[in-house]
Amino acid sequence: MKILVLNCGSSSLKYQLMNMQDESVLAKGLVERIGIAGSRIKHVRTGLDAVVRDTDIPNHKVAIKLVLEALLDPNHGALRDLSELSAAGHRVVHGGELFTTSVRIDADVIKGIEEVIHLAPLHNPANLQGIRAMMDALPDLPSVAVFDTAFHQTMPPRAFVYGIPYHYYEKDRVRRYGFHGTSHFYVAHRAAEILGRPVGELKIVTCHLGNGSSVTAVNGGKCVDTSMGLGTAEGVLMGTRSGNVDPSVMLFLMEQENDPKVVSHIVHKESGLQGISGFSSDLRDIEEEAEKGNERAQLAFDMLCYGIRKYIGSYAAAMGGLDAVVFTAGIGENSSLLREKVSEGLGFLGAHFDPSRNQVRGKEAEISAPGSKVKILVVPTNEELVIARDTRDLVGKR
C-alpha cells in the first residue's frame, strides 16, 4: 500500500511517498515559490541524489502535476504507474470544533474546512488548494484530511475557554485550539514505546520547539492542555512570534499604531527571538552571539528556556504528576544547550538531567540521568508518518 502525503502552504508543497508495508519513505520533495518567480521542484528518491527542476509553477494544480511526473520518472521516480497509489493524505491546519479526528474527504468535509477558514486564513485556503488539485488530478483516488488541531480537541472547557464574555465562544467559537497536534500525538506515543509502558498510564509533557513552538500536557494519551491558543502566537517565545503577552500590551500597541494589521505584524513577524535579540530569529545565531557576550541574545535565550520550564511545571501540576518530558522539532531535537537549560531546576519534579547523554542531535535518546523518576527524552517528530497511518486506517487496503 503506497500513500502520498501532502502538506500544502500558500506558496509551497511538501510531499512524501510512503510504502505502508514497512512504513518506509520511497521518495520525497518540495515544490517552492508556487505562483512566484523562481519556482522549482526538488525531488529525492530514497537512495539517490536530489533532482532539482526550475520551471514556472503558477498554481497548486501545476505543482501537483509536477509531483506526479517526478514520482513516475523512469530514472528517479518511485512509481511505475499511478494505479500503485492507494490514497493521498493531506495535512490541514485547522479543523475547528468540526473535526476531532482524521476523516475521508468528500464534499461535506471540504465545506467544513471552508467554514473554519476564518480561524486559519493563511493556512486552510492553501490546504484546500492542494486537496482540490489532487482530486482534480486523480478523482478516483481516496483522500484523507489530518488536522493539526484534532489532537487537542480532548481538552476540557476549563483549559480551552478564555476569560472573556462567554457569548464570544458561543457565537464565534473563540477558544483555545492548539496546533502541532500531529507532532504532539506522535512523540507522546513514541515516548511510551521507548519507555516500554502503555501511553494510557503516562503523564507526559511534549515540547515541540521550532520557529513556531508549543508545549502540550498529555495525560493517558490525550491532550488536556496546550500552550498555543486561538492562533499561533500564544505560548512560549518563538522565532518571530511574541508568545504570551498581557492583553494590556496589545491594547497599548493598538492605541499607538491605530491599525490592527500593523499590530498583528508586530506580534507575528517582529517579536520573539527576533524582537528581543534585534538581529535574528534563528536560535543557532542567538546561542552563538550569547556565547560571545551579547546581552540581548542571552536575554532572548533565557526567556525561551524560562518559558518552556514554566509550562513543564504548570502542566505537571495540572496533571497531578509527571512521567516524562519530550523534546522534539528543529530546536528541541538539535539544541543540546536549550535542553540542558530547560531541564535545570526540574529536580523537584523528579526529573534529573544527564549532560553526557545530552550530546545528541536529531535522533532518539534518553537524556535523563540513570535512576531519574521522570524521564527526559529526545524524539524526532514524524508528522508524515501519522498522516500516512491515519490515511491507511481510513481507506483500508487496496
TrEMBL record:
Subunit: Homodimer.
Source species, domain of life: Bacteria
Signal peptide: none
An individual GO BP term: acetyl-CoA biosynthetic process
Alphabetical UniProt keywords: ATP-binding, Cytoplasm, Kinase, Magnesium, Metal-binding, Nucleotide-binding, Transferase
HAMAP family reported for this sequence: Acetate_kinase
Catalytic activity: acetate + ATP = acetyl phosphate + ADP
Involved pathway(s): Metabolic intermediate biosynthesis; acetyl-CoA biosynthesis; acetyl-CoA from acetate: step 1/2
PROSITE patterns: ACETATE_KINASE_1, ACETATE_KINASE_2
Family the entry assigns: Belongs to the acetokinase family.
Active site per database record: D148
EC number(s) recorded for this UniProt protein: 2.7.2.1
Binding-site residues for Mg(2+), renumbered to this chain: N7, E383
UniProt binding sites for substrate: R91
Residues that hold ATP according to the record: K14, H208, L209, G210, N211, G212, D282, L283, R284, G330, I331, G332, E333, N334
A GO cellular-component term linked to this record: cytoplasm
Chief location bin: cytoplasm
Gene3D superfamilies cross-referenced by the UniProt entry: 3.30.420.40
Cofactor(s) the record lists: Mg(2+); Mn(2+)
Subcellular location: Cytoplasm
Site for Transition state stabilizer, residues: H180, R241
UniProt protein name: Acetate kinase
Gene Ontology molecular function terms on file: acetate kinase activity; ATP binding; magnesium ion binding
Role played: Catalyzes the formation of acetyl phosphate from acetate and ATP. Can also catalyze the reverse reaction.
Bound cofactor: record note: Mg(2+). Can also accept Mn(2+).
